[in-house]
Write a structure and sequence with these properties.
By secondary structure, the chain is an alpha/beta fold. Among the domains are: about 140 residues, Nitrogenase molybdenum iron protein domain (Rossmann fold), CATH 3.40.50; about 170 residues, Rossmann fold (3-Layer(aba) Sandwich). Helices cover about 45% and strands about 15% of the residues. The strands form three sheets. The protein has a six-stranded mixed β-sheet, with helices on both faces. It has a four-stranded parallel β-sheet with strand order 3-2-4-5, sandwiched between helices. It has a four-stranded parallel β-sheet with strand order 7-6-8-9, sandwiched between helices. Helix 3 packs across helix 4, helix 6 runs parallel beside helix 8 and helix 13 runs antiparallel to helix 14. Bound molecules: FE-MO-S cluster and 3-hydroxy-3-carboxy-adipic acid. FE-MO-S cluster (CFM) binds next to helix 3, helix 9 and helix 12. One of its GO terms (molecular function) is nitrogenase activity.
């Protein structure tokens, strides 16, 4: 029996039928997988809610917008404390990222309505912080009681003469990624991108789908600036409303996380003519390939030469450290389970250290993230789409610019492997490795027993089960408060953190007291 079948085997017929399509052992270059469907009630998985994706992931890193969570305090705290939104104020700009603003709704507000409390919160925020932009994010109870957030946003916008934008991201509308990101991104492209004129001074790019966890976006910007680019906007790591507004003036969009933002790249192409390419700044080979392909896109000899110089200098700086960690990690095995892109990207960084991936999967990815964009026309399922406004965008004549014609792009596609394309995770995995969509807690434990990986990369909800099972667990969402892991310096940080974990296997040395002796022995009174 295959490993996948032996894990499925313990399920009842009904669960078996549901989960079977979500798990596969790779025999071909790509295989069809069931993805982006609602989880069966009763299975305990790792997915976050729509609000977590909208406020926590996409809007959260926007430094110059003051974000008010309209809801109970736990939602605001969760999406602030566990995310690692890092941001530095621009010269003379505002930075609210270190703060957590919430209306802290109580039972009486749920009964009598929360709008007055929201008005008061906005007034207090304006008086203390003087923001130019306020975002209001909805939570589950707000949707249930029917507070009219667009009306609150409109009247406060008029009252204070600032932008107040509401986001209808009630948690129950779906999962973090498919519903939450989409709601945030749609409003960003509809209301912000393209609203300010700007003339870039050099070859200009936006970085799409990069959230600056652990400072990744800073490392990427450092490298791109050294190569000679102007980075206009990052969506949304270390991002700012001021920069989103002028993002349409960039010559190229480079996508780090395809899952969370590919539809924005496509809409920007239609509205503003901006070409996009899938890049990847996690892992040395990927970073180098992305930099070379970007230079190829611009086809400027000075840029190409400078790119090669940056690559050579950066590699020289890290080569000793990389060799050390490679010696320590070569031959080890890993499993990865994260949201919708990191399980692919980090396999390639692990390969830089000689670590082999046995299992990888996603919480929120769609089939194209596993199998490549060529399957998009065949995708039928889209669990959360009914809760998302579908934007119909059109060419905006006076803001449209063509940096490369369609013919030139077609030519370039021969040299740039993922120009306006993404080939998915499966193609980069070895035959025989396992792919699991929406892995749940039972499956996590079963696969650990079957595969015995040396390390398991995932998130906070499963970290401690894995760690207490004696396996090295590293969080790829938050980097366990380390990072950056992107680019050249990031690769070294990653190698160091994984090596430290591998060579201090403290959880392996402990035996649960109840496995050795009764914890109550000698402690129940009386003399020993
Ligand atoms: Fe993209 Fe993300 Fe991810 Fe994602 Fe996420 Fe994330 Fe992630 Mo947590 S946008 S898909 S829904 S890279 S929040 S910054 S770490 S699960 S792999
Ligand atoms: C989310 C956000 C999350 C959760 C992290 C985790 C993040 O989608 O709910 O489970 O460890 O990266 O903060 O993915």
């Amino acid at each position: 029996m295959s490993k996948v079948d032996s894990v499925l085997d313990k399920y009842s017929a009904k669960v078996y039928k549901n989960r079977k399509g979500h798990m596969l052992e790779l025999e071909e270059e790509t295989q069809e997988i069931a993805a982006n469907s609602r989880t069966m009630p009763g299975l305990i998985n790792h997915r976050g809610c729509c609000y977590a994706g909208c406020k926590g992931v996409v809007l959260g890193p926007t430094k110059d917008a003051l974000i008010i969570t309209h809801g109970p305090i736990g939602c605001g705290f969760y999406s602030w404390g566990t995310r690692r939104n890092k941001a530095k104020a621009e010269d003379g700009g505002q930075n609210y990222v270190p703060y957590c603003f919430s209306t802290d709704l109580q039972e009486s507000d749920i009964v009598f309505g929360g709008e007055k409390k929201l008005d008061a919160a906005i007034e207090e925020a304006v008086n203390i912080f003087h923001p130019k932009t306020i975002f209001i994010c909805a939570t589950c109870p707000v949707g249930l009681i029917g507070d009219d957030l667009p009306a609150v946003a409109k009247r406060n916008s008029e009252k204070y003469g600032i932008d107040v934008i509401s986001f209808p991201c009630e948690g129950y509308k779906g999962v973090s990624q498919s519903a939450g990101h989409h709601i945030a991104n749609n409003i960003i492209i509809r209301d912000l991108i393209g609203t300010v004129d700007y003339k870039p001074t050099k070859h200009s790019v936006n970085i799409l789908g990069e959230y600056n966890i652990g400072g990744d976006a800073w490392e990427i910007k450092r490298i791109l600036t050294l190569c000679g680019y102007e980075v206009i906007a990052t969506f949304t790591g270390d991002g700012s409303v001021d920069n989103y507004r002028k993002a349409h003036t960039a010559d190229l969009n480079v996508i780090q996380c395809h899952r969370s933002i590919n539809y924005i790249a496509e809409m920007m192409k239609i509205q503003y003519g901006t070409a996009w390419m899938k890049g990847d700044f996690i892992g040395l080979d990927n970073t180098i390939e992305t930099l070379r392909e970007m230079a190829k896109f611009f086809d400027d000899p000075v840029l190409i030469q400078q790119t090669e110089k940056v690559i050579a200098d950066e590699l020289a700086n890290i080569s000793d450290d990389m060799s050390l960690y490679r010696t320590k990690l070569r031959g080890k095995t890993a499993a990865l389970f994260v949201g919708g892109s990191r399980s692919h990207h980090y396999q390639l960084l692990l390969k830089d250290f000689g670590v082999k991936t046995l299992l990888a999967g996603y919480e929120f990815a769609h089939r194209d993230d596993y199998e490549g964009r060529e399957v998009i026309p065949n995708i039928v399922e889209d669990a959360d789409l009914k809760n998302i406004e579908v934007l119909n965008v059109e060419k905006i004549e006076d803001k449209y610019k063509v940096y490369k014609t369609e013919e030139e792009l077609e030519e370039l596609k021969k040299e740039i492997s993922e120009l306006e394309d993404y080939k998915g995770m499966e193609r980069d995995m070895d035959k025989g490795s396992i792919v699991v969509d929406d892995l749940n807690h039972y499956e996590t434990e079963e696969f650990i027993k079957k595969l015995k990986p040396d390390m398991f990369f995932s998130g906070i909800k499963d970290k401690f089960v894995i760690q207490k099972g004696g396996i090295l667990s590293r969080q790829l969402h938050s980097y366990d408060y380390s990072g950056p892991y992107a680019g050249f310096k990031g690769a070294v940080n990653f190698g160091r953190d994984v090596t430290m974990g591998m060579y201090t296997p403290v959880w392996n040395y402990t035996v649960a007291p109840w496995k050795k002796e009764s914890v109550l022995e000698g402690k129940l009174g009386g003399e020993d």
